[in-house]
Specification:
181 residues, mainly alpha, 6 helices
Length: 181
């Protein structure tokens, strides 16, 4: 493509990031404004009949785990804006599938109100794991797979989270100690 030959790689990365953030925003708007969300009343989203069809299909397959999608796409958009490459695409897709399936399964296992909160995939996950491992074991498996899926699909590192939490905890302790003096 000669059109993009004069654009630097950094600028291309930023354009991809903005496009991914726009897709994430569209997913968020479509999911947040959908009148269906598990009930039998099918209403239009604010994105029209195309948005209605896509969100309906997503809700039937993965239920409320659909909300993971805009977080994933948004994190990839932020990675692109920060000039981090979206490399290891196969690993990222596998991690994303693992994350979505495990969250759908977790929702289906833990929310027992008869509305299939995990969609067809969540029901499939629960039907496979619950007879063997029970509810608690299936929940542990779902949470573990979600953690691994998060690590594979994003640049999130749990060690950074732990370090940040320790820093905040120590800051709070020091602040309380200063207040006592």
């Amino acid at each position: 493509m000669e059109i993009f030959s004069g654009i630097s790689d950094d600028r291309k990365s930023e354009i991809k990031g903005v496009l991914l953030l726009a897709v994430s925003a569209l997913l968020f708007i479509a999911l947040a404004t959908d009148a269906y969300q598990g009930s039998s009343n099918r209403g239009l989203t604010n994105l029209g009949s195309g948005g209605q069809f896509m969100i309906g299909l997503i809700y039937v397959t993965i239920g409320h785990a659909a909300h993971i999608l805009y977080f994933l796409v948004g994190s990839w958009g932020l990675m692109q804006l920060r000039h981090h490459p979206l490399d290891r695409l196969g690993t990222r897709v596998a991690g994303s599938v693992m994350l979505i399936v495990s969250v759908a399964g977790f929702l289906h296992i833990t929310i027992q109100n008869g509305k299939e909160p995990g969609g067809a995939i969540g029901m499939f996950f629960a039907d496979i794991t619950q007879p063997i491992f029970g509810s608690i074991g299936s929940t542990v498996i779902a949470v573990t797979l979600a953690a691994v899926g998060t690590l594979l699909s994003t640049e999130f590192l749990f060690i950074r989270l732990i370090r940040s939490m320790v820093s905040i905890f120590l800051l709070v302790i020091r602040s309380i100690d200063r207040l006592r003096l």
